[in-house]
Write a structure and sequence with these properties.
- 2 copies of one chain form a homodimer.
- By secondary structure, chain A is α/β, with parallel strands linked by helices.
- Chain A folds into 3 domains: 44 residues, Orthogonal Bundle (434 Repressor (Amino-terminal Domain)), CATH 1.10.260; 130 residues, Response regulator (Rossmann fold); 138 residues, Rossmann fold, CATH 3.40.50.
- Helices cover 45% and strands 15% of the residues of chain A.
- In chain A, strands 2-1-3-4-5-11 form a 6-stranded parallel beta sheet, with helices on both faces. A 6-stranded mixed beta sheet of chain A has the order 7-6-8-9-10-12, with helices on both faces.
- In chain A, helix 2 packs across helix 3.
- At the A-B interface, helix 4, helix 5, strand 2, helix 6 and helix 10 of A face helix 4, helix 5, strand 2, helix 6 and helix 12 of B.
- Chain A binds a DNA duplex through helix 2 and helix 4.
DNA sequence: CTGTTAGCGCCTTCAG
DNA sequence: CTGAAGGCGCTAACAG
């Protein structure tokens, strides 16, 4: 018999027991003699039996599977977060199905449908740039599938999120530049309907305010998270009638392309212009010391989000409670320091 | 009725038809009147019905799901490959379950068991560093679950792989340095039982041979893919009684840490020593122009691997045939060039 | 074109 | 401690 066809019934027949006994033995139920249990386990092993989780899950109405929706797997922040999610899930016996929205609302929709169809026990989401309302999450709610946002979230009642303290990070980054002596600090932002960029920008403003520095709209540059944005922004900065001597970039893409565009224009960094950029472990490990970074702890966020979600799954009375976990990002100067990231 | 409980039977009862008719309608079978089909679809929509894929898959003995096993999601090469896999899968109606081996054989084992238990239709694997034989893949073979290796593969009869042409890439990298005028070229390798590192090393040797340059064992440095390796290697190079003026690094981790260690020691790059390093899109986009890179096309490899696997699933007569797809890596000099990677 | 019947493989009462 | 029976939700073969 080919081993892809072995079922508990086959084992039962061979051993002259009932399939329910086999099921119990294989699930280590105490209601089976040690002796028969051992016989069954041995035979199962011998035949290369492998439980059909589809059938098991269907019966139990529980899949031990989490769904994850991220904008783009290949962005390092998200792949780190997934790694964190996966670690926690693996340790606690959960599988993970990963979906990409590619920043498209329609795909996010489809992703949710796929996950529902697969009867995942819970969902972790970082929303797309296009996502501005939450009607498609109501379906999860109605089906009592708990979900937790991480990093990019929507403000839905009774919904938990794991977030970076973006306001504080923006504040720290800007104050760092101020303390270094910068007098005209530009801010590279992201899509402003995303809270994270709004909060980073608020932090920027608060730091200026605290240090009695003037705030000017023309020093704020929005972005679609494309490399070209950093280049364009630098070109605009150069045209300004005054000298910009600091940049706080809320997105890593623009920060790096801006850095390179500045160099092409003969700027020395950080002498001529200092930069603090949001970033991630991989990028931080690679870029030159001239760039101070705000490190986004993707792995930790993934871990925390998965822990929170699984606890909500387990204590079903605690589904859909409002819990906000805020994680601090750390400002990293790399001048002389060694780094020890594996990537 | 809560929408998480709606089944085809509910719809059938409400509409006074049989559940099998509902099933047919929802699967767009031609054997249902347009009229009843529309009624059924409308009602399903109204009730927020969502098919239970567990039950469907169990019945059909087909999950439309691919399993993917990679050493580490957060390495950019792999997350790019996964993005490629996901794109193809999404377009062709497949889901993807992703597992990490974390370079551990035992976890790779567990991953395979999980995927088998979930009855995936096929598996894509890039093996761990610990994986040296293929007995655990025999289980897949016996269960007639097709699998395709990508990037890091085992030489198993009748098994397909999608690979980078590592020999050629190693050759190109080394020849590039030779043409630039380097006379003593060191080679940073990886774990030598992995074919990719063996092949890159062979390419290195072949280029030296072609150009009548001496080969010396002491210029080859193995590595466990840790940052410290690059630092150690540089320290050893500095101690040598002759001047090393070129490095071909087969792994990005060592390349980057070596680059930084060289700078700490006052080296100018590429004037004092030229470096060509294997890398990936994200890293390439970020590192400074002084590093020439061999770009690993992760996304393409993922796409091709998924296409190949799905074609094997679809044409079940073509399971377990031996097809090798070799993809060329491209050497990228970044001196003056713009780059336009989103990451 | 639609209904009836019979499972996919597993787990979980309920009996004994 | 073990067996018998039923059903999770769906689809496919066979009737009509």
């Amino acid at each position: 018999m080919s081993p892809d066809k072995i079922t508990i019934h086959d084992i039962a027949r061979i051993l002259n027991v009932d399939s329910s006994t086999v099921s119990r033995a294989l699930n280590d139920s105490p209601r089976v003699t040690e002796k028969t249990k051992n016989r069954i386990i041995a035979k199962a092993h011998e035949l290369g039996y492998q439980r059909n989780d589809l059938a098991s899950n269907l019966r139990k109405n529980k899949t031990n599977t989490l769904g994850v929706i991220v904008p783009r797997i290949s962005r390092h922040f998200f792949s780190s977060a997934i790694a964190g999610i996966e670690e926690t899930s693996y340790n606690l016996g959960y599988n993970v199905i990963i979906c990409q929205s590619l920043e498209q609302l329609e795909r996010e929709h489809n992703n949710i449908n796929t996950l529902v169809a697969n009867r995942v026990d819970g969902v972790l989401v970082s929303i797309s740039m296009e996502t501005k309302n939450y009607e498609h999450f109501e379906g999860l709610r109605k089906r009592k599938i708990p979900f937790v946002f991480f990093d990019r979230h929507l403000d839905i009642p009774d919904t938990s999120s794991v977030l970076i303290d973006d306001f504080q990070a923006g504040f720290d980054a800007t104050e760092h530049l101020i303390i270094k002596g910068c007098e005209k600090i530009a801010h590279f932002s992201g899509p402003m309907h995303l809270e994270i960029y709004k909060n980073r920008c608020e932090g920027y403003k608060a730091a200026l305010l605290k240090h009695d520095m003037e705030f000017s709209e023309e020093l704020i540059f929005s972005s679609r998270l494309m490399e070209q944005d950093g280049v364009d922004n630098v070109n605009k900065i150069i045209e300004l009638p005054y000298k910009v001597d600091g940049i706080f970039s809320a997105n890593d893409v623009a920060a790096i392309s801006a850095l390179q565009q500045l160099k092409r224009n003969g700027y020395k960094i950080p002498e001529d212009i200092a930069i603090v950029g949001f970033s991630n472990e991989a990028i931080s490990a690679v870029i030159e010391p001239s760039l101070t970074t705000i490190n986004q702890p993707g792995f930790d966020i993934g871990k925390r989000a998965a822990e929170l979600l699984i606890s909500q799954i387990t204590n079903s009375n605690k589904n859909f409670i409002n819990e906000k976990i805020v994680i601090q990002a750390s400002l990293v100067e790399r001048d002389s320091s060694q780094h020890n990231m594996a990537f």
